[in-house]
Write a sequence for this structure.
């Protein structure tokens, strides 16, 4: 059994790939109504990483947030944040192209900024109140390698946000592009 584990770990080590990405995107959602606001618009810087540990399968993490505060219903400054942990599938299509599909779970955290500090015993003081929601995530992109390690990735993401009562719907889509760097064993 130890002999089999040794060879399985050896083959898994050859397939390892670690990627870091930085990019910018925008989000869209259902149109606003007189009583609810749309989450659409704005620039969203994003950061991601993933680790492919079994052939083309692995895990990943993504985070994005609105770069500038927006006004909720015309008076309250707010900023949404999106975080997710995913299963990642990224097969190679030649030496320079690698599609990527991911699905997972995460959270939407909307910070509503106030004029006074909110203080807690253990958390310190902040100038915002958070509204947090569980979400599902499906996304993908196409890694186009400009060198053996640097790639550009156009991407699209769909978030289904549970109980997203602050905005017009539970569906949020994010479109953008990232620049990435991959660390991988060369074959």
């Amino acid at each position: 059994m130890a002999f089999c584990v040794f060879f399985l770990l050896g083959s898994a080590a050859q397939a390892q790939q670690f990627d870091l990405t930085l990019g910018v995107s925008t989000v869209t959602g259902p149109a606003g109504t007189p009583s609810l606001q749309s989450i659409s618009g704005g620039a969203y810087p994003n950061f991601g990483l993933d680790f492919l540990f079994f052939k083309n399968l692995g895990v990943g993490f993504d985070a994005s947030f609105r770069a500038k505060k927006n006004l909720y219903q015309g008076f309250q400054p707010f900023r949404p944040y999106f975080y997710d942990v995913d299963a990642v599938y990224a097969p190679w299509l030649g030496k320079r192209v690698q599609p990527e599909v991911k699905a997972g779970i995460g959270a939407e955290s909307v910070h509503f900024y106030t004029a006074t500090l909110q203080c807690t015993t253990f958390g310190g003081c902040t100038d915002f109140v958070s509204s947090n929601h569980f979400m599902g995530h499906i996304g993908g992109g196409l890694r186009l390698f400009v060198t053996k390690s640097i790639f550009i990735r156009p991407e699209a993401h769909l978030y289904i946000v549970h109980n997203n009562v602050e905005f017009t719907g539970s569906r949020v889509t994010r479109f953008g592009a990232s620049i990435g760097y991959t660390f991988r064993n060369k074959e």
Strands lie at 17-28, 44-54, 57-65, 70-72, 76-89, 97-120, 124-145, 150-161, 171-184. The two ends are 27 Å apart (CA to CA).
